[in-house]
Amino acid sequence: MTFDPYEIRSHFPALQSGAIFFDGPGGTQVPQEVIEACGDYLRTANANLGGTFETSRRTIEVMADARRAMADFLNARSPEEIVFGPNMTTLTFNLSRAVGRTLHAGDEIIVTALDHDANIAPWVALEERGIVIQWVDINPEDCTLHMADMKRHLSMRTEIVAVAYASNAVGTINDLKRIIDLAHERNALVFVDAVHYAPHGPIDVQELDCDFLTCSAYKFFGPHVGVLYGKYDLLEKLPAYKVRPARDRTPDKLETGTQNHEGIAGVVAAIDYLTSIGEKYGIDAVKQYQSFTGRRFHLKTAMAAIQQYESKLFTRLMEGLQGTRGIEIYGITNPKHFNQRTPTVAFTMEKLSPREISGQLAQENIYVWDGNYYALEIMERLGLEKHGGAVRVGLCHYNTAEEVDRFLEVLGRIQSEES
Ligand SMILES: Cc1ncc(COP(=O)(O)O)c(C=O)c1O
Description:
This protein is of the alpha/beta class.
């Protein structure tokens, strides 16, 4: 069946407001199914884990189901490789502190200028233990990662490479397979930040062979819940900071305190929502996947269908932006390489600040972000930080060609009023 964004949109109550949501990289809207799952949990299963009574048993089931669903979403080998937490940033700080206990002064960690600060600051914090941080630069012309610089910094002293799947500022998708192979040749582990990439394409941790990977459900149509994947053996031997009664096993030892159970119930619904897209519109059904819940196959084909739809929408947006006078676009602009980027674009205009542009768009009910979106390093590297960063337009599968056209029309008007 042809991908139908209007059928898709009918699942999302927020989209009925008439506003244009191009703010997806900061957090997506949620389908009705997710809203209901959170409410249902609170109505019928609200309890803590480990009791003998009905609501506690239901909560255990919800957690187990969510772990299986996330294992399918990421193609993990086992649900125990999935750890939940409040958000990616907190999970990454927890993990880096635990990893830090296993490192020695002089060991090295690689971070990149393309990353969100949540995949930089938790590693830089280990400098206080004598860990040396190596910074990999970008190619400023197209905001791709400087691979020669990556190779130069990788050595037998490298313990961790912390790298984004895709940049939340300029949309660049990194050549992860290559980075992971290079890192593993030097016995370094790779920690992938997939927060920005997750709503836009299929993730397969086994195929990538990454050691850790994080994402956040609120960026892929779920509630505010963070998710960490780690290879089972690595998580098992990690000296996590935990309370004494918590089991010293993965995932329990890494899930400090009581989790956001209602949000996690919503994560299952978000995965089910994506699974249903695969059932309806799935493409590239080439390979049968191992699956804990039967969802994996549909998830893979759903994300392929989403990718194909978004790519067409993004080309329309880029053609319009490139045809608007006085606009500077950051990142990959050659359509031949659009498969190396997500449908997220950052730009500035000559006469107006990013804040002024986003404010004028907001008055027309078009929601976009401005600033650095915590991708501080790249904004500084591009010389934009001191000028208020850039405007970021982020498309996702519930956006339409009409919305893109309306945005371009309003932007064109803003531009001509200023010149
Ligand atoms: C690429 C990327 N990494 C990390 C984060 C932080 O995620 P969280 O809000 O779950 O801590 C974000 C949030 O915008 C992001 O876009």
